[in-house]
Amino acid sequence: MEPGGNVATQLRRGVLEHCVLAVLARSPEYAFELVRRLSAFDGLVTSEGTIYPLLSRLSRDGLVATTWQPSEAGPPRKYYDLTVAGRRALDAFAVEWTTFTDGVDDLLQQAGNGRSRGARGGRREH
Amino acid sequence: MADVSTDDVERNAEQAEDPLVRDYLVRLADAGRILPADRRAEVLADVREHLRHAVATEELPGSSREVAVRTALDRLGPPEEIVRAEAEQSGMPDRPRGIGGMQRYGDPIAVVLLLFGGFLLGVGWLVGLALLWMSDSWRVREKLMGTLVWPFGYAGVALIGPAVAFTEACTSTGTAVGSSETTCTGGLPYPDWVGVLMSIVVLAAPVVMAALLWRRRAALLAERGLV
To answer: pTM (2 decimals)?
Structure first.
């Protein structure tokens, strides 16, 4: 794999952890359900397995908390919940994200004025 | 309720037996050797639990279990990628620095010493041997190969090679004559071309061994995402 990866990989890398926080903002989630919920978004997750390292890092950083809850059958299940720090990080991201995407949208729009056909063709090639 | 739990327990037991799942977890454990022990254990536990539920979720009535397992594994992605993600998330140093000094400098030194270290009074080869067996880059199979082809490397060949040929010549002469007449004329007991062929094989073997060691090391490092 090349060092930089492609555009989608780069974008995903920066955004995925905040998507985890956003999912957990609604309600605590069981690990498997959380992973499936995230991978339901097109292009957000290519390998489900790589989310677990992310989850454990978020837990070490104190942005999410894990609890073990007994299940009706089988071993206890690991649940993830948003912490206060996680909520703050999510709020901060939401503000950044809006500013950021607005700016990028503007730029793309301007580029589209000049050579929208070429730009679109280029994108299809990738 | 009781039925559900029995089902689930049976399913878990089944999964433990599933060769595809087992292979996958072995691969993950193998690739995860570069991780700190606690990180590796957690990744393994997470993935194992994920698979337990993924297979159960994917398994539709009427479809084969194998399809369910394959789909679940496919969605998980290659174990190496999970390990790479874990290394990244736990802030392990990146690619080139990911190789320890021992692996970076010890491995090439080991290979060179295995070939030529024997000429340094034999000690060089022993150092090479120690480096070979201490390195993380090779499995026991490759380490055995490095040890046996040939002991003391080219120094061993230079020392033992002529002696072996000479002894064989003597023995052959002795049996052929069947008497006490054992004049070692130095004549070889086989045609010249066999001797040449054997010499080439004996001389080439260490180089082939070194190349194999090197290739295996490169493959392993690539697999661990270190190159």
So the answer is: 0.55
